[in-house]
Amino acid sequence: MVQARPTLINRLAQRELFWAAVFIAPLICGLFIFTYIPVVCSLALSFSSWNLLGDPQWVGLENYTHLLGDPLFFKTMAVTTVFVVVGVTLEIVLALAVALLLNRAVQGIAVFRSVFFLPVVSPMVSVALVWGWIFDPQFGWLNALLQLIPFAHLPRIAWLYDEQWALWALIMIRIWKDLGYTMLILLAGLQGIPSHLYESARIDGAGWWRQLWAVTLPMLSPTLFFVITVAMIQAFQTFDVVYLLTEGGPGNSTQLLVYWLFKNAFQFYKVGPASAMAYVLFLIILSLTLVQWTLRKRWVLHE
Amino acid sequence: MLASDRLKKPVPLPRLPFSQVGVTKCKSSTDVDKRPLGEWARLLLGLGCVGVLVLGLGLMGCAPADGDGSGKTKLVLSFWGSANELATFKQLVADFEALHPDITVEARHIPQNYFQKIHILMASGLTPDVMMVNSLSLPVYSEHDQFLPLTDLLGTDAFPVERADFYAGALAALSRHGTLYAMPRDVSNLVVYVNKRMFEQAGVPLPPRNWTLDQMRQTARRMTRDVNHDGHPEQFGMSFYAKPPLFWLPFVWSEGGRLLADDLHTLAIDRPETINALQAYADLRGNEPVAPRRIDTGAVTMSQLFIQEKLAMMVNGRWMVPALRQQVGFDWDVWPFPRGRQGSVVGIDASGYAIAKQTQHKAEALKLVAFLSSRSAQARWTESGLIIPARLDVAESNLFLAPGQRPAHARVFLEVIASGMPSRTPPQWDEFSEALQLALEPVWEGRTQARDAVAGSTAELQRILAH
């Protein structure tokens, strides 16, 4: 400390923490204004009835009890569950397969990796537009392709307009779009596995499968854990593809939770029930993440 | 980093490949540990700074929104529409500003999700001074006292607009409980567009202009063709809309059916006339379809099918006229909607200009709306062919009837206004129509009978109306 008392400004200016605060202030402000304050407000709103125009009315737990008594909520939950479980499982398996294929020193490997990553950086709006055409029952080439299979005599499928198929079509689009990201993270994980482990496995006489099960997967488990958690959360939060292609239809068959929430909040202006849904979704994601967090001790190496 | 290194130290988080690179040092945390009290003081100071910044940002947001110091009054005008409509609005605003040099108008064009944005602006206390509204969305806002009631102002010096100049149906569509909340710009209703060339080529006589629903079905059957003989028609006689209800309600109303009783709180969808009419509409796609199913169209709209000459007759509104005038080479015309047991009844909707009840510039906003409702402003809208003007003098002029241009029977649009039913919707209309669409979807797909679908959905529909 200096002997002569410096001015307050001078003293402030010398504090590291002061400058740290100044520099992070814009970020903190943004977080508070756009995230934390709305999160707290929406908790309060979830106990109210409000259409954004009048004054909010306190209704206690009514929004939550209504939600639990609403068959549409359970339908939405069922659709969301299928979307998340099937989508994430397929995505991880496919991404792992692709990552294994691309984890080798072949000429032009960078090109292949870029090709798989391309959908990740493509804007969802254009992706949805193009897939909408691919799935078109009249001129879409997916149906045309299926018609080419000899002797199968497959019927024309209406895809996005058929209750049986619409959700599967959306799952396909999402996997296609997100595969590259998951693949890239897994690829990074694969490259972190030291080669001496494979070497000793080979000396012990392990074949390709044995190496996969005994070396690759255990060593990759922390990465897999991360990838599964993130993919699951993203799948739960899926909104754009539904908004762009099916609007929840046909017949609620693609009514994912977040889209339903959006509809309630911004089409029907039922802010209270929508906030309650948001908290239910939050609790679901939180508990699933906690379950994974607990289970990871069983299967994730080094923990 | 080798995997073996990771084994040694316990890490709270799964360490990810990319997170292993950047964590080099966290020096400051060890520095402050030496002086725990000073740390708190600094933290408080830091938070204080954040607070000041937040406050500053907040104050910047509250800068006076009014005027640019030139002493002019600034009005905000919001509207939806295409690029062409934006150009018309800009021209009208320029004309208005020339007439009123003391007022400037900021034209705010909201092309997408219009009412969503207006709703949020209202919630934030930023309601535009003047805004376009339509009859379907009006009740939500009039119910919450968002619009200036215009009934008592009509014909006063402050608002020299005469009720008698406008179609009564348009005024009724923009009124609630007898109070007028917006000055109508246009009327929208539905007619049947007919591709005359397809009739000629098929050798099918054109239907009589005073036709019935039965005659429409017969004509549609004759115009439906399985061109490639695969067992499914590729050319259809009549359009089919699963949503919005607006497009199929004429089939119900003309047969005497109703969705809601006149009080708008009681369901009438379970009346036998309604159920029969719904079933008859669904049967257009039935065993012998005369209207396209979803699998026949995919993302292609009815108007696209009509333009491609795969659809001989189409229920649609006036807004189709500019596109048809520009894009098609075949001869087409409009017919009134066919008659059912109760005549030919289509809905009369309207859109127009409402003034925010909270506006700071009521007098100027009234001047703007009066100007937009004037004969010359309406004429400008009518020139494009896009709208049916809400003013009788413009509608009955050659500007709208456009002799020599298609459609030859433009007067049909005006005759329909007299026989139509002014749109009346409850404030819960969006949610109600969504639930209704869901309930009726299986009927439109031919998987359920209208009777069963209605029986299965009345409780839910009634619940929506009740709150």
Please give a structural write-up.
- The complex is a heterodimer of chains A (303) and B (467).
- Chain A has helices at 8-14, 16-45, 62-68, 71-102, 109-121, 124-134, 141-148, 166-191, 195-203, 208-236, 240-245, 257-266, 271-299, and strands at 48-49, 57-58.
- Chain A is mainly α.
- Chain A has one domain (71-299): MetI-like (MetI-like fold), CATH 1.10.3720.10.
- In chain A, strands 1-2 form a two-stranded antiparallel ribbon.
- Chain A is globular, with a radius of gyration of 25 Å.
- Chain B has two domains: 73-185 and 351-407, Periplasmic binding protein-like II (D-Maltodextrin-Binding Protein, domain 2, 3-Layer(aba) Sandwich), CATH 3.40.190.10; 191-345 and 428-466, D-Maltodextrin-Binding Protein, domain 2 (3-Layer(aba) Sandwich), CATH 3.40.190.
- Chain B has helices spanning 3-8, 27-33, 36-61, 83-99, 114-123, 138-143, 168-173, 196-202, 213-223, 249-253, 272-282, 294-297, 302-307, 321-327, 362-372, 375-383, 392-395, 398-401, 411-419, 429-444, 450-466; strands at residues 73-79, 103-109, 130-134, 175-176, 179-180, 183-188, 191-195, 236-238, 311-316, 332-335, 347-355, 388-389, 421-422.
- Chain B contains 21 helices and 13 strands.
- Chain B is globular.
- Classes of the chains: A mainly alpha (303), B alpha/beta (467).
- Chains A and B meet through helix 2, helix 8 and helix 10 of A and helix 1, helix 2, helix 3, helix 5 and helix 12 of B.
**CATH first level of the largest domain in chain B:** Alpha Beta
Q: What is the rounded distance between the termini of chain A?
A: 45 Å
Q: How is the CATH topology of chain A named? A: MetI-like fold
| Structural class category of chain A | mainly alpha
Could you describe the largest sheet of chain B, including whether it forms a barrel? 7 strands, mixed
Radius of gyration of chain A: 25 Å
> Please, how many helices of chain B?
21
How would you state the average pLDDT of chain B, rounded?
86
Main sheet attributes: strand count, strand direction, barrel closure of chain A: 2 strands, antiparallel
* Average predicted confidence as pLDDT of chain A: 89
| Largest interface, C-beta closer than 8 angstroms, per-chain residues | A-B, 56 and 49 residues
Give the class-level CATH name of chain A: Mainly Alpha
Helix content of chain B: 40-55%
- The N- to C-terminal Cα distance of chain B equals 62 Å
